[in-house]
Amino acid sequence: MISDYRFTKQAVKDVSRLPKTYQRKILKKLDFFVKSGEPLKYVKKMVDSELGEYRFRIGDYRVIFDVEASFLKILTIGHRREVYR
Predict the structure, then answer these.
(1) What is the average pLDDT across 39-52?
(2) Domain count across the chain
C-alpha cells in the first residue's frame, strides 16, 4: 500500500520555480491522492516510460512519478506543454 510520496532533487527544483498558488495546489492534490488509499486509480500510465511510469494531471500541470515500495517517487513536475520534452 502506498502511504507517502518523496521528491527527487529535480522535482524540488521544478516545484520551487512554480508560483506559490500552484505549489500549494499541487501539494494539496498529492496529499489527497496518497490519503485516498489508492492513488493509482487517479493516474495515467505513461506511453514512453523513459520519463517515468505514471503521471497525475493537476490542472495544466503534470506530476511524473514512479512507484517504489510503499511510496511515490516524484520525478518531475511541469506545465503540460513542456513536461514531456
Answers:
(1) 94
(2) 1
